[in-house]
Amino acid sequence: DPVPPLQVIRPEPCGVCGSRIRFGKTAIKCCQCQLLLHTKCREQCPSLCTPRPHHHAWPREGVLADFAPPAPPLVPTLVVQCVTEVETRGLTETGLYRVPGAEQLVREWKRKLLRAGGALPALSSVTDIHVVCGVLKDFLRGLKEPLGEGAASPLTLLPGAATDIPDDAASDTALRHVVSKLPPANRDTLAFLMLHLLRVSQSPDCKMDVLNLSRVFGPTLVGHSSANPTPLAIMEDTPRQCKVVARLLSLPPSFWRGFVETEQENLVPV
Fold first, then answer.
1. Rounded CA gap, 73 and 66, in Å?
2. Residue 204 carries which DSSP code?
3. Which of 199, 213, 193, 174 has its CA nearest to residue 267?
4. I want to staple 81 with a disulfide (CB 3.0 to 4.6 A). Which of 45, 146, 246, 269 is the partner?
5. Domain CATH for 228
6. Bridge partners of 153?
């Protein structure tokens, strides 16, 4: 049930061939199921359609809120599914998140999950759990702004609260305040991730304590001190980024649970 051809403003994948329909190109959208496709793919489109669920393919990159569900806790399904898979069969693996997964498989699965949107294929078919870890890290690295950043919490505040206050109690208070001021999707996802990393750190088989996990996730979760850092600035930022994540992991689990325990059933992937 197509409407007249329209011009694409935001690049989206074609519902038939999966290739991206680029900005300014002509496309066709179905009135009933909202399926978007290239005009050339119209002949391959099934004649019968059904109204589509609310999920849609995610952008290739974006801020975290672009991937979050409509109801709290605002943790993207991709993050929940990766974490669930890692906790189901990965907590006996040495070097979890430190050992790299095969790059090609990580790229393939990340692309597959982003294209799927909210209805993700099962990760149980990924033999190597390090690939699942790689997908999660690559997703977080690919965000337009780091998880610990956001409009309501300037980049400098989180590192400052973690590293510039010598008194631990005062630093914890400042850190809790800054986390609570993060955009809701960033805050909820950070809380969900911190609880997961704490469980990883407590697994003797993983041999990934808080320090190891901070080294892995510091540069991924915490931004740089300037918008376009020089190689020297990147090198100088790394210890600070790691310290921020170590301080976040030192906060009690009850603090993090306060953000994600509401409507916990929403986090269970279908």
1. 14
2. T
3. 193
4. 269
5. 1.10.555.10
6. 150
Long-range own/partner contacts, residues 111-116 (CB < 8 A, 24 or more apart): 113/78, 113/81, 113/139, 114/57, 114/58, 114/59, 114/60, 114/78, 115/13, 115/18, 115/57, 115/58, 116/57
pLDDT, one tens digit per residue, over 206-253 is: 999 999 999 999 988 987 766 677 788 788 888 888 988 999 999 999
What type of residue is 219? P
Helix axes 168-180, 231-250, angle to 10 degrees: 100
Question: If you ran DSSP here, which 8-state letter would residue 76 be given?
Answer: -
| CATH number of the domain encompassing residue 19 | 3.30.60.20
Q: 163 and 210: one domain?
A: yes
Residue 55 domain-assigned?
no
Pairing of strands 6-7, 12-13: unpaired
Contact (CB, 8 A) for 171 and 247: yes
